[in-house]
Amino acid sequence: MDKSDFESSTRKKYETMSHRLDEKSRRLWAATEAISFGRGGAVLVARATGLHVVTVRKGIKDIESGSESTVDGKSRVSGGGRKKLSENKELMLDIKNLIEFSTRGDPESPLLWTCKSTYRIQEELEKMGHKISQRSICTLLKTLGYSLQANRKTEEGGDHPDRDKQFKFIYRKTKDFLNRNCPVISVDTKKKENIGNYKNSGLEYHLKRNAPGVKVYDFIDPEKGKVAPYGIYDISKNNGWVNVGISADTSEFAVNAIREWWDESGSIAYKNADEIYINADGGGSNGSRNRLWKVELQKLSNETKLTIHVSHFPPGTSKWNKIEHRMFSFITKNWRGRPLIDRATVVNLIASTKTKEGLTIQARLDERIYQKGIKISDEELASVNMKANKFHGEWNYSISPLE
Predict the structure, then answer these.
(1) Secondary structure (DSSP) of 49-107
(2) Which residues contact 54 (CB under 8 A, 6 or more apart)?
(3) pLDDT digit string (tens) for 260-297?
(4) CB 279: neighbour CB atoms within 10 A?
(5) Could you give the C-alpha distances from 102 to 105, 114, 163, 307, 320, in angstroms and in order?
(6) What SS3 class is residue 14?
(7) 8 A C-beta contact, residue 321 and residue 281
(8) Homologous superfamily, domain 163-399
């Protein structure tokens, strides 16, 4: 029988019986057909059946060595078969890096989405040497927590022309610090919360018609007041620190939270570090134009002997701050539907927040009273040992200890 007749005959037989065969049987049947033809049979059978030639040759090898049987009647030995793409750490890291600059997200939701098309991501991954389909990328993005979503009105302000350049600057500098095992922290104040028996958005399981009652109106309780949780998220360690303040959300309060994190956690995790990199929003108690913020950072630098590097996110991009979707969103999920009846409840709920990815959070109640409206003179600001970066020095600068 010549090659074309053999290939045609094999194709017809395979089409007739393939749906009745399992993986092992298909491999061994194909190997038997290849052996019957002789030299070149594996290639012809592979072409006729659509099986990979390596599969056919493995079947031949199994038959010739007598190792075609497997344990417990399985068609594949334990651990055999192609591994899940999600287990390929290099691939998952490359996907994360590709979409890093295109990630958007609601700070109160752990769900993310990307504006890069999956086809574009596929092209970039193939350039890196990964063989992957567009559909597989969709699946992996879902595994990473991304989804397709429609437009909705969340824009906070106009886009700065150097917005993307600032994101890339932060990304490169973060990578450099992490490679040198120096701490990179993302900081921000979570929205203030009323303390008392007030409604908290979300649902909890209760017996039917037995949901706990809460106050109808959200007027502030003059005795319990509000709390302002200031958070520090360690990007490398995936852990957090929250100072729950009962006073004003000032720069002094913000820097004191960073100080406590360093004393209790950071200095232990990064014993040899002499630098720290802070990612912060452009406004609020850690704002780029806040003079008190820089003066307080100078005090912290003097105390710790650390050179403190700071990068602020451009205007209107606070939702890109990692602490929002890697820590605050999970705190909100953890206390959903539960009234924050007192300060201890807030601290305990924050500290009990955990994720499958290993996030842990320490929380402390900060009962100090911070003065609002502190003015910093030009002379005080000039005494700060600050070095502005050539690229947007108002966003990127470092503060070193004074001699």
Answers:
(1) H---HHHHHHHHHHHHHT----GGG-SS-TT-SPPPGGG-HHHHHHHHHHHGGGEEE-T
(2) none
(3) 999 999 999 999 999 999 999 999 999 999 999 999 99
(4) 24
(5) 10, 6, 12, 30, 10
(6) helix
(7) yes
(8) Ribonuclease H-like superfamily/Ribonuclease H (3.30.420.10)
CA-based torsion, 174, 178, 183, 186: positive or negative = positive
Query: pLDDT tens digits, residue range 45-55?
Result: 888 888 888 88
Closest by Cα among 317, 323, 332 to 283:
317
CB atoms within 10 A of CB 332: 19
Half-sphere exposure of 390 (CA within 13 A, CB side): 0
Domain ranges of the chain: 3-73, 85-143, 163-399
Distance between CA atoms of 330 and 359, rounded to whole angstroms? Answer: 9
* CA 368, chain centre distance (Å): 33
Q: How many CB atoms are closer than 10 A to CB 12? A: 11
Question: Is the pLDDT score of 23 beyond 50?
Answer: yes
- Is 29 in a helix, a strand, or coil? helix
Pairing state of beta strands 184-189 and 112-114? unpaired
Q: Which residues contact residue 72 at a Cβ distance below 8 angstroms, ignoring those fewer than 6 apart?
A: none
| Residue pair 314/282 in contact by the 8 Å Cβ criterion | yes
Give the span between the Cα atoms of 363 and 231, in whole angstroms: 9
